[in-house]
Amino acid sequence: MPHLTAHLPEDKLAGRESELVTALTEAIVGVYGEWARGLVGIRLSGVPAGRFAQGGKAVNTNVSLVMGVRAAAFDRPDAAEISANLAAALTDAITAVLGEELRPGTTVELVPSPQELTFVAGAPAP
Questions:
Q1: Distance CA 107, CA 97 (A)
Q2: What is the pLDDT of residues 53-89, one digit of tens each?
Q3: Residue pair 97/65 in contact by the 8 Å Cβ criterion
Q4: What is the pLDDT of residues 5-17, one digit of tens each?
Q5: How far apart, in whole angstroms, are the C-alpha atoms of residue 54 and residue 79?
Q6: Rounded to whole angstroms, what are the CA distances from 66 to 37, 86, 114?
Q7: Whole-model pTM above 0.85?
């Protein structure tokens, strides 16, 4: 159940939401496979100008992607490869839709979610 939250500059996101959701979904499906499509959850959060800062200065070229991934995915022998592929694919999706100038400021954080701590509709996730 990959869940992705993206914080992006509002002025770059406005009007591109649908295109970005498609690109991010395709990036995840491209790594995990078609079986994951229906499980991908994406939340886009536009950040107004002046609310992203780097080194104490406001910037308008940062993107923060935080993706919840089942913890068991990190126990696989190919975990490092899958993680690197996800980071690259998600970054490529951002830059393909919103512009290459965002690449240097795009961070991807993969957060493990243990099975016993994952819930859907108030019940343990299958």
A1: 16
A2: 888 998 888 999 999 988 988 999 999 999 999 999 9
A3: no
A4: 999 999 999 999 9
A5: 30
A6: 18, 11, 16
A7: yes
